[in-house]
């Protein structure tokens, strides 16, 4: 399986499957071994989060397969600019990378929540402008958020895409 697709307008190309580390348990060595095996099978898109506790697993696997061979996405629940900036600093340190490929605000499930987290989103966008992040986005677990995101194109007009 070596099928790759463009990830929206990010300029990134990813495997069609993403390895999510949210339920990874066990040692860092065992987790890294799973990620390396996934890479050998063609999965070069890995997802983690600051609350999963799996940044060390991903970091070790990146050292084995090579940083340039994998697209890494991470997430944060931060709602403030300071919190988002801390999450970026922590992710860079724990992942052992110079830049995170995709950084998402995690589980934003309503327009009100997105508005409340706008300082964090702006901080992530600033980190992107500084070259610390390649693409910024929002993850959600509800259809309501998806509907809001696809019907509200204000982010694409005038200011350009955040991706």
Task: Write a structural description.
The protein has 163 residues and is of the alpha/beta class. It has one domain: Alpha-Beta Barrel (TIM Barrel), CATH 3.20.20. 40% of the residues lie in helices and 18% in strands. The protein contains six helices and seven strands; from the N terminus they run E-E-E-H-E-H-E-H-E-H-H-E-H. Strands 3-4-5-6-7 form a five-stranded parallel beta sheet, with helices on one face. It has a two-stranded antiparallel ribbon with strand order 1-2.
The number of domains: 1
Radius of gyration: 16 Å
Please write the string of helix (H) and strand (E) elements.
Answer: EEEHEHEHEHHEH
> What's the level 1 CATH class?
Alpha Beta
Largest sheet: 5 strands, parallel
| Helical proportion, percent range | 40-55%
Count of individual beta strands:
7
Could you give the order of strands across the largest sheet?
A: 3-4-5-6-7
User: Which structural class should the secondary elements be placed in?
Assistant: alpha/beta
- The N- to C-terminal Cα distance equals 26 Å
Q: What is the beta-strand fraction? A: 15-25%
What is the CATH architecture assignment?
Alpha-Beta Barrel
Q: Spell out the CATH superfamily.
A: NADP-dependent oxidoreductase domain
Categorize the overall geometry: globular
């Amino acid at each position: 399986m070596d099928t790759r697709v463009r990830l929206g307008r990010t300029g990134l190309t990813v495997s069609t499957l993403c390895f999510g580390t949210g339920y990874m348990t066990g040692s860092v060595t065992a987790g890294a071994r799973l990620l390396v095996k996934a890479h050998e099978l063609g999965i070069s898109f890995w997802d983690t989060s600051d609350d999963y506790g799996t940044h060390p697993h991903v970091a070790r696997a990146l050292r084995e397969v090579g940083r340039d061979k994998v697209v890494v996405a991470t997430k944060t629940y931060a709602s403030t600019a300071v919190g988002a900036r801390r999450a970026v600093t922590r992710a860079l340190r724990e992942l052992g990378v110079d830049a995170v490929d995709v950084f998402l605000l995690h589980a934003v499930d309503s327009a009100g929540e997105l508005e409340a987290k706008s300082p964090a989103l702006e901080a992530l966008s600033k980190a992107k402008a500084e070259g610390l992040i390649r693409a910024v986005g929002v993850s959600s677990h509800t259809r309501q958020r998806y509907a809001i995101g696809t019907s509200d194109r204000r982010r694409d007009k005038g200011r350009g895409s955040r991706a």
